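hey can u check if this looks right to u? its 153 residues, i copy pasted from the old doc so theres a chance i mangled smth
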Amino acid sequence: MEHIGEFLESVAFWHWLTFGAVLIAIEIISETTYLLWPGIGALIVGAIKLFWPEMDGALALLLFAIFSVVATWQWKRTPWSKAIRLTHATLNERTTQYIGRRVIAAEDFIGDTGAVLVDDSRWNARCLDGSPKQGDALTIVAADGALFQVRAG
C-alpha cells in the first residue's frame, strides 16, 4: 500500500494531461464515446494539478473518478447521446431512418404503387390507403428494403 501512495504522489500534472490526451486519441480512433469523458476528466485533473501542484495524489485520483463518472452520466442523459445510438442502430437499415417523414408523390400512383421524393432522391413506394396523385403529401409509415410504405397526409 505504501508503494501505491508513493506512486500517486509522484504523478505530475503533465502525466494527467498526457493520459487524457491518450484516452481522447484512442476515442477518436474507436468512435465509441466510452473514453471521451474519462479523457476529459484526466485533462481537468491535470489542469487542477498544474495550478495546485501540492494536491494529494489520492485526491487527484478521486477527482478523476468523480469527473469521469459524472460527465459520462450527464452525457447519457442528453439528446445527442440518444441520437448517436439511434444513428448507429440503423446504420445498415437506411430506409428505417425515414419512418415518420413527410414526402411528396413523384408521380400518379398506379393502383397502390408509385414513387415518392425524399429530399433529392426518388424512392419506390406502396400506398396503404388509396392511389395518390403527383404532388400529394404522404407520410412514410414503414420500410421494406428499398420500398417505402406510405399513407396520405
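The longest strand covers residues 137-144.
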